[in-house]
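Progress against Task 2.4 (sequence-to-structure conversion) is shown through the following example record, which the project officer requested during the mid-term review.
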Amino acid sequence: MGRAFVYVILGGGVAAGYAALEFARRGGYSRGELCIISEEAVAPYERPALSKGYLLPEGAARLPGFHTCVGANDELLTTKWYKEQGIELVLGTKVISADVRCKTLLTATGETISYKTLIIGTGAWALKLQEFGIQGSDASNICYLRNIDDADRLVNAMKSCPGGNAVVIGGGYIGMECAAALVTNKIRVTMVFPEKHCMGRLFTEKIAEYYENYYTSRGVTFVKGTVLTSFERDTTGKVTAVILKDGRHLPADMVVVGIGIRANTSLFEGQLLMPMENGGIKMLLHSIKLFDGDIRRLEHVDSARRTARHAVASILEPSKTRDIDYLPFFYSRVFTLSWQFYGDNLGEVVHFGDFTSSSPRFGAYWVNKGRIAGAFLEGGSRDEYEAISVTVRRKAKVANMAELENQGLAFAIQESQTEAPDSGLAVVGKPTYGMACHSWCGCSSVNHCDWLLVWQEAPQVVNSG
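Structure tokens generated for the chain above:
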């Protein structure tokens, strides 16, 4: 026994919600023809809320308040909304195998679900310490943060040790945002990671220094250049201390782990015409103009939202769907700080602004081949963030690096207020069919929500979230 749909969205992350909204607005299906299959027991929600508002000690975010698509200031897609739109939610359901040739999915309960068009948005799983052979990693006070069940476990762990000690393993998004939440909950925090500074894949040493100093002022201790090797546990199996490679023992009432993620691709390994590559599915896709066709893994909620819409458009109106014109975007909010980054951190770095103030406004440009490739800004206004995004999108030309440093933010503001010049760069027109890969990587961000693969009679488009 089984069910059949015209369109199946496999995975219930951010991209699933935004894809559903795009289907509903375009009217590309009839009632009962579209379903979302998700292992989670709730309708798609905005994952960034888990590492931000959900962990607050007061006024914490809770469902249904952050279902998609409120993260883009759009409709709140509750379970009632899906019912009204004739979209079936198949929740709490694990798909254990997929047959691409026969267009069927087999669930853990033995049901077969067939489809004509499949959108794969299976996202990723959080890397666990067990995968690195760390004994005792299944202790009840070791927490991860990937879904709402993880968030509930983390909240309960914090409540169980008020004023206690937490060790955060990892210095990426999850580590930084969870450390801030722990401090806000009046828990002492020690962060452990092997890199020289936090957010090593994005921050420069100078930028990282500011945030590390700020965190230190809030009571966070940084232990860099080492990793954990084992735990001390009590008679109930709970962790009481983290043992590091350098021999140190850190007392711990709870442990939060943010060491990366891996794409959920196992259902499709060996079935697709194209091989797996870089941890994801190698597939035909629309190239991203900003990178001139360069292959990247876009790992942020904003990408999940936008590429979900683009994927649905390519299904329903392929002749009208052009290359995705996407500006990579990352952001974070911790304590009283708030930063945004656009583009690519490639090339020579020029820092600007005040790195000493308690109410900072500073940033950096990345200049590659004489043009702005990326820009970072802490403490900006809406207009200032818009200015740096425009500057990156235009690949603004830099004539003099010293002058750029002197102008700082004023360079972006001035650029955004001028008419867009002819950059002389080639603009990609209609989609070109070539081989490329978008997937997830090991950056420990809860914001990395979904990657999308549209599979019909033949491969059509893949988009990463």
